[in-house]
Design brief:
7 helices; about 0% strand; 2 domains; Arc Repressor Mutant, subunit A; about 170 residues
Length: about 170
């Protein structure tokens, strides 16, 4: 008979980075993501012997935790405006800027909508699985995913248009 504590340890070692990535997408913040994963893994430990699919159980705990935290407005930060400087046309940091813009747009989505978009598209879970994890209908997943993607498209489209044009040539 295998030791449950060792099985749990092996699960955590094998899946921690994937769970942290999902938590980071759900929260938009590395520290909150680490806290979310830790809290979820502690809850899993207490149910370890009774859970058939530990990864699905942890994802559900993380998703519910992120949604509940998203309802609390007291922790939200208000970022300042971006500086007006724009990168050059072949700047390799464009991909980083795009990723950061997408992450910022993700954090603006309502918590449940963000969870649906992340579970459906970033984690590539089928709609039925997302509906089961979030305890809602497949229709809700479809509509919320559609609305979330529309909001992301609108946010990233408006972010890609520079607000202040920058002339790199000297006027003197």
């Amino acid at each position: 008979m295998r030791d449950p504590a060792e099985d749990y340890r092996l699960f955590v070692v094998a899946r921690y980075s994937a769970l942290l990535h999902t938590a980071w997408l759900l929260t938009g913040d590395r520290q909150r993501a680490e806290d979310l994963v830790q809290d979820s893994l502690v809850k899993l430990w207490f149910k370890w012997r009774r859970v058939d699919t530990p990864e699905a159980y942890v994802r559900k705990i993380m998703t519910n935790g992120a949604i509940q935290a998203g309802r609390r407005a007291w922790w939200r930060e208000r970022p300042t405006a971006e500086p007006p400087e724009q990168a050059g046309p072949d700047d390799p940091t464009d991909r980083v800027d795009e990723r950061d813009g997408l992450l910022a747009a993700l954090t603006e989505l309502p918590a449940k909508q963000r969870a649906i978009v992340i579970l459906r598209y970033a984690e590539d879970l089928p709609m039925a699985e997302v509906a089961r994890l979030l305890d809602c209908s497949v229709g809700t997943v479809k509509s919320q995913a559609s609305r979330g993607l529309a909001r992301l498209r609108a946010a990233t489209a408006s972010a890609s248009t520079p607000a202040v044009p920058v002339n790199r040539r000297s006027t003197s």
